[in-house]
Amino acid sequence: MLFALPDPDTLYQALLDRDPSYDGRAYVCVASTGIFCRLTCPARKPLRANCTFHETAGDCIAAGFRPCKRCHPLKPMAESDPVIARLLDALDARPAFRWSEPDLLAMGLDPSTVRRAFKRQFGMTFLEMARQRRLREGFTALASGAPVIEAQLEAGFESASAFRTGFSKILGVAPGALNPDALLRADWIATPLGDMVSVCSKGHLHLLEFMDRKALPRELEKLRKGAGNEIGVGQFAPSEQIRLELTRFFAGESADFDTPLALHGSEFTKSVWRALRAIPAGETRSYGALAQALGRPSAVRAVAQANGANQIALVIPCHRVIGADGALTGYGGGLWRKQRLLEIERGYLGG
C-alpha cells in the first residue's frame, strides 16, 4: 500500500478538522446515515461511534455505503474514466431504475468494458452496485414501517414479483410475509467487509450473518419456524447494541461483544461455540486443539461441524479456527473475509 491509514482516532480528528492532506487517501463511512464521505466533507460531523475509515471509495461501496452528495467522493474516479462518470451520473439521476446489460448497450456502451472498469475501481460491477443500492433502499423503507408496495417503489421495482424475488434472495422470505410486530426482527448492518443482517428478539441476538452467505436463507427459515413462522424488519435493543459493537470492532476500538446471545444448537454444539468465544482476538486454534480443550480429542469432525453451524458470525468467532498446518480453512463468509478478520484482530493482540 502506498499509504497506511493512521489509527481511527487520528482519522476522526482529521474529519473534524477537514484536513485536506487525507483527501483521496482516506474515507469515512457513517453507519447512522449509510453514506461515505471525504474527510473534508462540509456536512455536519457524525459521532465517533458511527464512523469507520477506509483507504478507498471502493471499500466503502463494497461495505454497502452510498456516496455523499455534498463532497462527491467518487468524483476523482469519474474524472479518470468517462464510462464510469457517465454511469455514475445515470445512477444518480435514476437511482430506482432497474439497470440491465441491454440498457448499457442502448447507451452505446460495451457491457464487458463497463464490467472491467467498475471492477477495477470499485471491486464490483455497475449492475451489482445498482442492485445493492435498490434492495437496501427497500429494506430500509420496510424497517421504517412503510408498507410493502411503498418499499417496492422506493427500491425501484415496478413489478411486485420482482421485488419479492430480489428480497427473498437476501432474507429468504418475501416482504409481504414480514410481520412488523413479530417476536424476531431483522436489521441491515453495513460493515467494512460487506452488509450483514442481524435477527434479534427483545432480549437476545439470534443471528448475525453476511448477506451473501449461501446458508442465510436456510438459517432464517429455521428461525422463522421456531418463532411461529413470523419474522419482521426493525430493531430491538440488542439490534442497536450489536450495531454499535460492530462499529467499535471495525474501528479498532474493541474486540469485545457483550450483546446477549440466543444459542440454537445441541449442548455439544453450544460447548464448541463457548470454546470459540474463549479464543482471544488475534489468536487462532485448530479443530484438533478445540477438541482437546473440550476433553473430546477424537471429536475433531464433530467440532468442525459445530463450527460450520455457527450463525452468529464474528461474535462467535469461527473465523479463528484454521487448519492444523496453519492454512486457512473453509469459512461461510468467504476466505477473503476470514483473512481480513484475522488481520484486523492482530491489532488487538496485547490489548
Automatic annotation (TrEMBL):
The active site is at C37 (nucleophile), C318 (nucleophile). The keyword Transmembrane does not apply. Zn(2+) binds at C37, C41, C68, C71. GO terms for molecular function: DNA-binding transcription factor activity; methylated-DNA-[protein]-cysteine S-methyltransferase activity; sequence-specific DNA binding; zinc ion binding. Keywords: Activator, DNA damage, DNA repair, Metal-binding, Methyltransferase, Transferase, Zinc. InterPro entries: Ada-like_dom_sf, Ada_DNA_repair_Zn-bd, Bifunct_regulatory_prot_Ada, HTH_AraC, MethylDNA_cys_MeTrfase_AS, MethylDNA_cys_MeTrfase_DNA-bd, MethylDNA_cys_MeTrfase_DNAb, MGMT_N_sf. Its cofactor is Zn(2+). Its EC number is 2.1.1.63. One of its GO terms (biological process) is methylation. It catalyses: a 6-O-methyl-2'-deoxyguanosine in DNA + L-cysteinyl-[protein] = S-methyl-L-cysteinyl-[protein] + a 2'-deoxyguanosine in DNA; a 4-O-methyl-thymidine in DNA + L-cysteinyl-[protein] = a thymidine in DNA + S-methyl-L-cysteinyl-[protein]. The keyword DNA damage applies. CDD domains: ATase. It comes from the Bacteria. Residues 107-181 form the HTH araC/xylS-type domain. Gene3D superfamilies: DNA Methylphosphotriester Repair Domain, Homeodomain-like, Methylated DNA-protein cysteine methyltransferase domain, Winged helix-like DNA-binding domain superfamily/Winged helix DNA-binding domain. Transmembrane segments: none annotated. Binds 1 zinc ion per subunit. NCBIfam families: ogt. Belongs to the MGMT family. This is methylated-DNA--[protein]-cysteine S-methyltransferase.
